[in-house]
Automatic annotation (TrEMBL):
<dbReference type="GO" id="GO:0016491">
    <property type="term" value="F:oxidoreductase activity"/>
</dbReference>
<keyword id="KW-0560">Oxidoreductase</keyword>
<protein>
    <submittedName>
        <fullName>Outer membrane lipoprotein carrier protein LolA</fullName>
    </submittedName>
</protein>
<dbReference type="InterPro" id="IPR004564">
    <property type="entry name" value="OM_lipoprot_carrier_LolA-like"/>
</dbReference>
<dbReference type="Pfam" id="PF03548">
    <property type="entry name" value="LolA"/>
</dbReference>
<keyword id="KW-0449">Lipoprotein</keyword>
<feature type="signal peptide">
    <location>
        <begin position="1"/>
        <end position="20"/>
    </location>
</feature>
<keyword id="KW-0732">Signal</keyword>
<dbReference type="InterPro" id="IPR029046">
    <property type="entry name" value="LolA/LolB/LppX"/>
</dbReference>
Length: 214
């Protein structure tokens, strides 16, 4: 499950103390970005995930897709699915044809990809790193550092497009040398969703083994 959860690690330290002093330039950009995404009723996007560890000579590329509506989401990555309806989380493992069911923690919210756009508001210090151009696009680069020294993530770098405040990509740097890069592609706002979008229908997975961890 580590491949699936690597996307969600970006929001794993949200229940930390509030931030004190912040970089106002970075805050203005982050607020505009956050407002943009929170205004959507739902959204869908393809993404690529790259894991790199120079010392271990590791480089791994994965592709995935995600649908989000508020705190609900459906994530597909490398033959796995994580579905969350805000109360229950289903993790389906295709190779094993197994689904694990667990309760969603309403306080931690550390399993919600939507927190990518609000995580800076709690438990992180943020600074404006630089203005840059990538593939012909002007971007602002913001760096976040967790206030807790026990966090295994020591830095998050978010790249925001100047033209529309959209997120181009983000990088997560961990103390063990792993660096995760997530690049958003084919973003579609306000896609149609229903209750079934964020629930696991056992009938569609013939012979699936159900492991209820609640």
């Amino acid at each position: 499950m580590t491949k699936t959860l690597s996307l969600l690690l970006l929001s794993a330290t949200l229940a930390l103390p509030a931030v004190a002093q912040q970089d106002p330039k970075a805050g203005k950009i982050l607020d505009a970005m956050s407002t943009k995404y929170q205004a959507y009723k739902s959204y869908q996007a393809d993404f690529t995930q790259t894991l790199e560890n120079t010392s271990a000579k590791v480089k791994q590329n994965l592709s995935g897709n995600i649908i989000v509506a508020g705190q609900k989401f459906r994530l597909k990555l490398s033959g796995q699915e994580v579905i969350n309806d805000g109360k229950t989380t289903w993790t389906y493992l295709k190779n094993e044809n197994e689904v694990n069911i667990s309760d969603t923690d309403p306080d931690a919210q550390d399993m919600s990809p939507s927190q990518i756009y609000t995580m800076y508001k709690k438990g992180y210090k943020y600074t404006y790193a630089q203005a840059a151009t990538e593939a012909g696009e002007a971007i602002d680069v913001i760096e976040l550092t967790p206030e807790s020294r026990t966090n295994d993530v020591f830095k998050v770098r978010i790249k925001v497009r100047k033209k529309d405040n959209s997120v181009k990509s983000w990088e997560m740097f961990k103390k063990n040398g792993n660096r995760y890069t997530f690049t958003i592609k084919n973003f579609k706002p306000n896609v149609p969703v229903t209750a079934s979008t964020f629930s696991f229908d056992k009938a569609k997975y013939k012979g699936v083994k159900v492991v209820d961890l609640r």
